[in-house]
Specification:
Blueprint lengths: L1 H32 L8 H17 E2 L1 E4 L7 E2 L2 E2 L17 E7 L4 E7 L3 H4 L3 E3 L12 E6 L21 E6 L2 E13 L5 E4 L5 E9 L6 E10 L4 H8 L9 H33 L1
Parallel strand pairs: 6-7, 8-12
Antiparallel strand pairs: 1-4, 2-3, 2-11, 5-6, 5-9, 7-8, 9-10, 10-13, 12-13
């Protein structure tokens, strides 16, 4: 019973550890693909960014977080049908778009195209209908992820975001640094417009709160910092080091050993008592 209880208690940490390890593997794999043709070609990368900026310029960018909704709805409409959203900035065939690192909150996750339920089980979704996260004046990207899933951490710590925090978004070989300028919680009855602002380069992160209840919504908005600090460029190129050492395995193993030792000791004690009775 003790071992079973400990297994149930450690399940969220265990499942989250494996989920994060998988997402770190996806990120590392995508970084490896960046070194392979055509992704490693300078001209190809420049063309991809040019298309992304064209997409943003053609997009009447915006989103609305409707009352009672967990995920915002992209309201952007493009006047260029030749630019296909899912084909832009796509690395590999799994929808991987980029990498987000928010070190003070322990976030290092892949960014995927779209916000389907399957996507949001595995990482951060970029909301179609908002600007692609390549920077630029008058743009606002909206990134969203779940919070409180038993099998994944994702945006669990986003409620600890503070003004002045910085995080990075890496797309292809470009790293963009953003600084948090606004964070607020809205009630489930509120409708929130999330629009691009002239002259500003913004990203808004969205998730649910409180943890496990998910009745309200957290919106964290950050503005780009230029130039990108060199340390951020180097960190974005490093192999993901999350989730770290699996302490849950040590705790479970230690618990199992203690229980096993107790059982073995009880059996030996019982045998000794039986032997004494037999002698008598």
């Amino acid at each position: 019973m003790i071992v079973a209880g400990m297994a149930i208690y450690l399940y969220p940490q265990t499942a989250s550890w494996f989920n994060q390890r998988e997402q770190s593997r996806v990120t590392a794999s995508a970084m490896s693909q960046l070194q392979q043709p055509p992704n490693n070609d300078v001209a190809y990368r420049a063309h991809q960014f040019e298309l992304a900026h064209q997409y943003n310029e053609a997009l009447a960018s915006g989103a609305v977080l409707n009352a009672g909704a967990n995920i915002a709805v992209g309201e952007g409409v493009s006047d260029n049908d030749e630019l296909v959203y899912h084909e832009l900035l796509s690395i590999g065939d799994n929808g991987f778009m980029g990498r987000m690192k928010y070190d003070s909150l322990g976030i290092d996750l892949p960014i995927y195209h779209g916000t389907s339920e399957e996507t949001l089980k595995n990482g951060i979704g970029h909301l179609e209908g908002t600007s692609l996260p390549v920077g630029g004046s008058g743009t606002r990207s909206v990134l969203t992820a779940h919070r409180g899933l038993p099998e994944a951490t994702l945006f669990n710590e986003l409620d600890r975001a503070q003004l002045g925090d910085r995080f990075t978004v890496a797309v292809l070989d470009r790293v963009l640094t953003y600084e948090v300028t606004e964070t607020h919680v809205i009630s489930p009855d509120d409708t929130q417009a999330i629009m691009a602002e002239p002259g500003k380069d913004l990203i808004t992160l969205i998730t649910c709160t409180p943890l496990g209840i998910n009745s309200h919504r957290i919106l964290v908005t950050a503005e780009r910092v230029t130039p990108t600090p060199e340390r951020d460029v180097l960190a974005a190129a490093a192999t993901p080091d999350i989730p770290g050492f699996p302490w849950w395995a040590v705790i479970f193993g230690a618990t199992a050993l203690i229980v096993l030792a107790y059982i073995v000791g009880s059996i030996r004690k019982s045998k000794r008592e039986v032997a004494v009775v037999d002698d008598v």
